Amino acid sequence: MTVQSPTDAAPQPLRARASGPLRGAAPIPGDKSVSHRALILGAMTVGETRIAGLLEGEDVLATAAAMRAFGADVTREGEGRWRVRGVGVGGFAEPSDVIDCGNSGTGVRLIMGAMATTPICATFTGDASLRSRPMGRVTKPLARFGAQAHGRSGGRLPLTLVGARDAGPVEHRLEVASAQVKSAILLAGLNAPGRTVVIEPTPTRDHTERMLAGFGAQVEVEAEPGGARVIRLTGQPDLAPVSIAVPRDPSSAAFPIAAALIVEGSDVTAPGVSLNPTRAGFYETLREMGAALTFENPRTEGGEPVADLRARFSPNLRGVEVPPERAASMIDEYPVLAALAAFAEGVTHMPGVHELRVKECDRIDAMARGLEACGVRVAETRDSLTVHGLGAGGVPGGATVASRLDHRIAMSFLVLGLAARAVVTVDDASPIATSFPGFAPLMRGLGATLEAPANR
Ligand code: S3P
User: Fold this and answer.
1) Which amino acids are annotated catalytic?
2) Which atom of ligand 1 is nearest to the CA of 33?
3) Which of 78, 108, 173, 384 has the fewest CB atoms within 10 Å, measured from its CB?
């Protein structure tokens, strides 16, 4: 399977027109965060790790290719079924070529962490989006282990990382609420003797901690009174291979669920979606907006709480104030929330979201400009976005919106177009393949009209 970064391919415009009702089951692909971690931890473990339900999106395939370049044996055995024969903690070989992580910030940051305490050298790059994103947030804490990074100005990719020989453990307090930074430090801490400690003032997604414990590492997580969390990892464990069932991705489910809420007559169920509390903020917000959303058959699968998410057309959505402390638990869902908020009555205010400025693109700017083009009034500050809702059926649409190499911007505007009065075109839908390759066919299967413009 080859990995093609979105920049390599010709743009693929896609347009959405008012359609529906959307009805039926929406099989959501595997969780992107868990998929990256399963491949990386599998590669750091001696023995055979088996993965079921792996997301086969471009981001994760780039991580699989990277793990091969570091010496692991990574094999696809069937749809979503992968086997990793790892090299053990500290066992990474030096890659013979540049590691291209495509569009994936998670991939590059976690892999840098994983190699930072092994005395090898690797050069990382990615597509135009990834090459514009800040890496100093990871390379600075990794420097405390003794790793040396040489990148472009602002710490951007391409960047060469020289891993530390004989690294000692590190105690680090996160400056940004970032699971990627936390995870990079913990993965680096695996090959440092003693205890590596990460203090996160705001809890972020905890898949790395959960999975490390699953592989047999000693990880303690302590919740402090103010909500902060202290994670202590004992270095140089003997990781034992496991079988991992990847849960379905709540960040991907957000798109068909949001579409069902705004398209008249819809009734869509997304079975077995992860509702890990560090990821579920979007669904809590939907409930507050008055969405007809139910969590059916709650159960545990692959160590994660999951439920079947059922969403029905909700003509009376209300604008809400989203608490800033919820941002980390729904950070990837703000674009689709902003699109949905356009169909609510009243104002939706989303404060405390400055991190959106350094995602695959500046998501505050991308959503604001796209919504304005579709006839929706918005306001933004450095760290907030406000959407003035127009109510069910009230969004004009009728624009072409730039996806800016950002899968979630592309999907958000296609969702918006399904309930807007006039057709919405996304200039390039190819980035969707990074996280949700089957998005368009899945949506069409539910009853959505998504089509490539005829005059290409
Ligand atoms: C991710 C963490 C988040 C998120 C990204 C996936 C992860 O990024 O936006 O899509 O898997 O750790 P930050 O940690 O930078 O907030």
Assistant:
1) 332
2) 11
3) 78
- What's the CA-to-centroid distance between 178 and ligand 1, angstroms? 6
Ligand 1 atom with the smallest distance to the CA of 177 is 16
Separation of alpha carbons 345 and 256, rounded Å: 21
Q: Name the closest-CA residue to atom 15, ligand 1.
A: 178
Cα torsion 123, 2, 412, 404 to 10°: value is 50
Q: What structural domains does the chain harbor? A: 6-30+248-451 (3.65.10.10), 32-245 (3.65.10.10)
* pLDDT at position 1 over 70: no
Checking if the pLDDT of 269 tops 90, the result is: yes
Cα–Cα distance, 317 to 287 (Å, whole number): 9
Pocket of ligand 1 contains residue 252 by CB under 6 Å: no
**Whether the CB of 178 sits within 6 Å of ligand 1:** yes
- Stated pTM of the model: 0.97
